[in-house]
Amino acid sequence: LAGKVQRDRIGVVGHAFGAFSAMLATGVTDAKVPMPARDPRVKAVMLVSPQGVSPEFGLAPESWRGLTIPALFITGSLDRGPGPDGDPVWRHDAFKYSPAGDKFLVSFVGARSSSIAGTTVGDVEDIEVPMRGTRTPTDAAGNPTAGNQQQQSANRSQNAAPRFGQDRRIFSEVKTISTAFFDAYLKGTES
User: Fold this and answer.
1) Which residues make Cβ contacts (< 8 Å) with residue 164, sequence separation at least 6?
2) What confidence tens digit (pLDDT) does each residue in 7-65 have?
3) 114-123 b/e (C-beta count within 10 Å ≥ 16 → b)
4) Rounded to whole angstroms, how far apart are CA atoms 191 and 189?
5) Shortest CA distance to 52 belongs to which of 14, 12, 11, 82?
6) Which residues sit opposite 105 in a β-bridge?
7) What stretch of H or E contains 73?
8) What is the C-alpha separation between 63 and 169, in angstroms, rounded?
9) How far apart are CA 121 and CA 55, in angstroms?
10) Where are the alpha helices (DSSP H) in 3-85?
11) Helix, strand, coil content of the chain in percent (nearest 5)
């Protein structure tokens, strides 16, 4: 990579707990980590499923005052936060409390943390379940016929297929949006 890294145009991306680390590297303060951790070389940040106000993470509304660089926040309506209610709107706090200027929030309807990150492995396994048992009796259409458990598995896979397709589309959009964001703020190709 010699000669290919532009040290004056660094972008950082973090997902879930990685978003917390990325926030600290870009000016967000944590009451539990009293020293500033901001890296001045970072010029833009993308926070996927970021944490919101939380005593466990040491984050208060004023924690985001130092996030002055361009930031893209990505979450979804099913991207649940911790705690008993798990309200996905909690993940909007990072955007809500950041100072104005070059901050963007994208929240996908029906997206979970795994949808946004492209890690829908569980859904793929659900789709494959009926195909794994080569000795499972099936009807003429290939549907399992032996037992309630196999039928439940088939029903799960039928429900997972549309969800998996939606997750793939969401992840494709995340790649497009994030590429445009970093091109604009690191390459200077605003359009």
Assistant:
1) 120, 123, 124, 127
2) 888 999 999 999 999 999 998 998 777 666 788 899 999 999 999 999 888 999 999 99
3) bbbbeebeeb
4) 6
5) 82
6) 73
7) strand 71-76
8) 33
9) 31
10) 17-25
11) 40, 15, 40
